[in-house]
Amino acid sequence: MPRKTLRRFLPDPHKTIHMRPIRWMGPLLRDPNLFHINRYSIASSFFIGLFCCYLPLPGHTLFAALLALLFRTNLPVAITLIWISNPLTIPPMFLFSYSVGAWLLGNPETHFTIELSWEWIAAQGSAIWLPLLTGSLICGLVLGALGYLTILYLWRWKVIKNWERRKQTRQNRQQQP
Predict the structure, then answer these.
(1) CA 142 to chain centre
(2) Distances from the Cα of 56 to the Cαs of 49, 61, 94, in angstroms?
């Protein structure tokens, strides 16, 4: 089952609760659903993680953790998927989000060079913020929905495959004299 595979990679909930950096959140983390591994919990965590990785906000890991706490889905999976957006992938993701947002809003795409300064953010931020935010929300929703549906389908496929394998094993045992 997929559950067995995921258990090998996910942290132990009892050890996680007692880790020093997050020990202060103890009462919140004691909910067993935050570490539960089933089809809907993992699929929902995929939605949350993939949605939040497209948000153009600092601290999107915290936002994903809060959503996982709110919807009581698997916390480690939701937080792990945030790291799809890392320093190497953020520029193409946000450029694509900006293009999608500009296209949806009917705005022409502005060509600009990026400078890491507050002056550039103040000057260009107002021109690109709305298309970037709109595109990021749409891309996050689409990617999250695709992840959710893919996990539901793959989980179901794996369970059916395991059922068929067990059924075949039983039939082979019954046919042996």
Answers:
(1) 12
(2) 14, 12, 8
CA count, 13 A, side-chain hemisphere, 153 = 6
- Strand positions, DSSP E, 6-95: none
Tokens of 86: 């890392």
HSE of 108 in the Cβ direction (CA atoms, 13 Å)? Answer: 3
How far apart CA 8 and CA 12 sit, in angstroms, is: 9
How many Cα atoms occupy the beta-carbon half-sphere of 81 within 13 Å?
Answer: 27
Report helix, strand and coil shares of the chain as percent, to nearest 5: 80, 0, 20
| Whole-angstrom distance, CA of residue 38 vs CA of residue 44 | 10
| Amino acid letter, 11 | P
Indicate whether 2 pLDDT > 70. Answer: no
Residue 119 has pLDDT above 60, yes or no: yes
